[in-house]
Amino acid sequence: xxxxxxxxxxxxxxxxxxxxxxxxxxxxxxxxxxxxxxxxxxxxxxxxxxxxxxxxxxxxxxxxxxxxxxxxxxxxxxxxxxxxxxxxxxxxxxxxxxxxxxxxxxxxxxxxxxxxxxxxxxxxxxxxxxxxxxxxxxxxxxxxxxxxxxxxxxxxxxxxxxxxxxxxxxxxxxxxxxxxxxxxxxxxxxxxxxxxxxxxxxxxxxxxxxxxxxxxxxxxxxxxxxxxxxxxxxxxxxxxxxxxxxxxxxxxxxxxxxxxxxxxxxxxxxxxxxxxxxxxxxxxxxxxxxxxxxxxxxxxxxxxxxxxxxxxxxxxxxxxxxxxxxxxxxxxxxxxxxxxxxxxxxxxxxxxxxxxxxxxxxxxxxxxxxxxxxxxxxxxxxxxxxxxxxxxxxxxxxxxxxxxxxxxxxxxxxxxxxxxxxxxxxxxxxxxxxxxxxxxxxxxxxxxxxxxxxxxxxxxxxxxxxxxxxxxxxxxxxxxxxxxxxxxxxxxxxxxxxxxxxxxxxxxxxxxxxxxxxxxxxxxxxxxxxxxxxxxxxxxxxxxxxxxxxxxxxxxxxxxxxxxxxxxxxxx
Length: 572
Known about the structure:
Elements: E1 2-5, E2 14-17, H1 18-21, E3 49-52, H2 62-71, H3 77-84, H4 89-94, E4 101-104, E5 111-114, E6 126-139, E7 145-160, E8 166-170, E9 175-178, H5 179-185, E10 186-195, E11 201-209, H6 215-224, E12 235-236, E13 251-253, E14 256-260, H7 270-286, E15 293-298, E16 301-302, E17 320-323, E18 326-331, E19 334-336, H8 342-346, E20 352-357, E21 363-368, E22 373-377, E23 380-385, E24 394-395, E25 401-403, E26 413-415, E27 421-423, E28 433-439, E29 445-452, E30 455-465, E31 471-474, E32 478-483, E33 487-493, E34 497-502, E35 508-513, E36 518-522, E37 527-531, E38 540-543, E39 548-552, E40 555-560, E41 563-566, E42 568-569
C-alpha cells in the first residue's frame, strides 16, 4: 500500500474563452444552447474565462491517473471529454459526469492510497486507488446545492491497457471540484416558481456549469424539472407535466426567446400560457439572459401567451430606526416618521428591543424589554404574545406576526391583526432551541437559527398556508449552513441570500445563499443587531453604543449615532 497527499496538478492548464469551452455541455442538463450571434447588448469581452485541465500524461501511474481524472472535473466542455480520456473505453461510454458534484476543501487535502506499492507498478496489471476527500458541499443531478461536511472515501479500479498505459475501469458517477474553483466553473441560477396563490415568484437556486448563455439550460431545468423537495409544499409551476421542450435549444433573437413546446401545449388555456410565460421570463432574466419576452410555439405555430400581474414589491423605505425618541426612516441626520405607526411606537413608555414593520407600513410588531410582543397600528396597541422567553418577532407579507420562545422552537405561533393565535405545525421538530426567525418577502419560506444536539444551524423551510393565507405548517427542514458561534441576528438580503450576524466576542457577518455557498467578513466591533435589505449592499449593523454602520466598499462606515433600535421590515 502506498499513500500520498494530492497536489494541485494543473498540467497544461490555460485560460480560454468560455464560448470555446462549452459549446455542448452547459449544465447537469447537458444539451447546449443555439444562439444567433451574441445577445443584444453583449460583447465578446463579456464572456467568462474558465480553467482547463489537460489529459493523461504518458507513463503515469495509477495514483497520477486518478489525480488527473479528479482535476479534469473543472473542464466541462464536450460533456467532460478531458476527464473521459482517463477512463477505459467501456467506462468512457457508461460514466455519468452530470450525476452530481462533490465539492471538497482543496486539491491539497486529497489523500490517495494505492493497493500497488510504487516499486511494483511496472509489473502490475491492475490496481485500486482510494481517495479520501474532505467534503464541504455537494450538488445533485438537478443542480441543487447542499452543505455536506466531513471526510468521504472514493474508490477507483484501474487496469493497464494494451499500449501499457493505466486507465480507470471503475469510478463513481459525478465529478469532484475543489471549493476555491467551484464558483469559477459553476454558476447558481434561481429558477422561479409561483407561490400558492399565483401572486408571487419564489426562487429555487440550481447550479450548472457556467456558459456564455444559459438559456437552454435553465429553460430545460424549469420546464422538465420540479421544485426542490424542501420548497415544493409552498410553490407550484405553471408548466403541466405533459408539456416539454420540443427542441434541445432555445433561440435568442433580438432579445426574444423562442421556445418550442410539445403538442400538448396546444390545448392549454390562456391563463396557463400566460403564467408559463411569466414564470419562464422571470427565470431567464434572473439567470442573466438578456430577454425582453418569451415566445412559445408548437410545430412552428406561435401560441398566444400574455403575462400575469404579480404582487408589486413595496417601495424601498431605506433604514428604519428608533433614535432619540423618534421612529421612522433615517436619511442623514433626519428621521422621517411613518404615518399611522410612528405615533403609537414613540408613545410606548417601556424600553423597546425590536421593531418589525409590515410591507405596507400599516402596522408593526414591537417587542419590549420583557419580551412581550405587541402589534402597533394606527390608533391601537394590542398585545400579541406574552409567553416567556420570546425571540424577536417576524412579520410576513400577509400581515401575520410570527413568534416563538427561544427554548421551545416547535411552539411557533402566527397572529394577524385580529390577534387570533394560529399554531404553525411541524416547526423545527428536531431542534432544542431557536435564536432567530425571519419570514421571506414572498411569504413562502422561513429561515431560522436553531440548535440541534450540540450544533447551531441556519435552516429554512417552506410555509404552507390555507386558502385564507394563514400559515398552518412548515415543510421539511433544509439545513443551509452550520455556525461556529452563536448568532446575534438574522436577515434576508434580497430573495436568495441571508445575512447572519454571529459571535458576540468577535462579530462576523455571514452572507449565505439559500442553496449555495456563503462568505464571511468581519463585522463592526461590538455589533449587536442587523437589518436586511433587497441587496447585500443595503445591509445595516448597529453597535452596542448605538452607532449605525453601512458598507463602504470592503469596509464599514458609521452613518449615524444614538440608535436605540435598528428596526427591520417584513421580509428583510
